[in-house]
Amino acid sequence: MNLWMISFLWGGLGAVVGGLVTFLWTRAKRQSLELQIESERKLGEERLKILQEAKSSLEDSFRSLSSKALENNNEAFLTLAKTQFESFQERSVSQLNEKKNSIQELVKPVKESLDRVDSKIQEIEKSRIQSESSLLKNLELLQSTHQELRTETSSLVAALRTPQTRGRWGEMQLKRVVEMAGMLDHCDFVTQSSENHETGRLRPDLVVHLPGGKKVVVDAKTPLASYLEALESSDPEKRLQKLKDHARHVRKHIEDLSRKSYWSQFQPSPEFVILFLPGESLFGAALEQDPSLIEAGVAQNVILATPTTLIALLRAVSYGWQQESLTENVKSLGQLGQDLYKRVADLGGHLQKLGRNLKQSVDSYNLVVGNVESRVLVTARKMRDQRLIGNEGEIPKLDGLDQIPRQLTAEEFSSKLEIESKLE
């Protein structure tokens, strides 16, 4: 037990001594390290100070050098930039002038077009002003004419109240229609014709002659009294009643015309008569109140016609006359062709006879020339050669004619010649 305690104590003492030694050594080591660190810190501070001083000196030197270098570089840069800028400016000015000329060439047609457009606009503006002025004058004239027309219409309505005036007005309208259809120039109509009838004297307003000798009768005695009263009336009910009366009067007139049987009195004629209404409004008003008027007229051989439809009918008749005239001209031309052919054939016979006579004359001439050459001239030359006569010059040589008249080879001339030869 004591031994163990002693060992423990000695062990504890050794540990304490070892710890103390270790502590002392460690403290000495730490102090040495602290001194070393302090020395190195001071050395580092000195080095840092030296570095800062060197840095400051270098910065000053670099700043000075940079300032000088920058100044030199600026001068060189400015010189170079000036040179480059001048060169660039020269090129730019040259290119600008070229582009300017090119743009001017491109813009020149546009400018000319704009000038023409501007000139045209000015002309149009002048024309517009003149047109507006003319339009205003025309409107004033139209207004004045309209007023005059209203006055004349009122006068016409008042004048048309009398039957005789209405009849003359209808005949005038009918004559105008015939003129517009071109029938006056050909004289293809006869107005105010009349024929006797068992019920009295028939007096149509127009008889149109058709090609082939046929006739078409036109009547223009349209009842207008009720229609004129309807125009003057301001009461709608009264106006409607007058229009119905107008339609009824037209229907009655259709029946009267049908009973007269104009087509049987003016032979040859198609089995219908034309009832001429001298205004489109007259026909429209009657048809509006009585839509069956057309069917009723056709059933009774009466054809209703307005100026428009009558012009179309008369134009068709005029065309028929033109075709008739053309046919007659063709027939006349054919007869003239036959006469011409006969005369040409006769002329061919005369030419053939003339050719034969010419041939006989040539043959006779050649015979005489042969006799003169063989009988007369030979003796005359012998007398000259024997000097029995004076030398009065050479006797010209007489040549015969070897040309004969050209024969007519056409069939017409040949046949004509054969006929004449047989007759001879």
Task: Explain what you see.
- This protein is an alpha/beta fold and 424 residues long.
- Among the domains are: 160-305, no CATH class; 339-423.
- It is built from 9 helices and 7 strands.
- The strands form 2 sheets. The protein has a 5-stranded mixed β-sheet with strand order 1-4-5-6-7.
Summarize this structure briefly.
With 424 residues, this protein is of the alpha/beta class. It is built from nine helices and seven strands.
The main sheet orders its strands as: 1-4-5-6-7
CA-CA gap between termini: 209 Å
Provide a count of the helices. Answer: 9
Largest sheet: 5 strands, mixed
Question: Strand portion, in percent?
Answer: 5-15%
Mean pLDDT, as a whole number?
74
Using the CA coordinates, give the radius of gyration.
68 Å
User: What is the share of helical residues?
Assistant: over 70%
Strand-and-helix sequence, N→C?
Answer: HHEEEEEHHHEHHEHH
**Low-confidence spans:** 191-200
What spatial form do the alpha-carbon principal axes imply?
flat
Number of strands: 7
Structural class: alpha/beta
Topology (elements, then pairings):
Elements: H1 2-159, H2 163-180, E1 189-191, E2 195-197, E3 200-202, E4 206-209, E5 215-219, H3 225-232, H4 236-260, H5 262-265, E6 273-276, H6 280-289, H7 293-299, E7 302-305, H8 307-385, H9 411-423
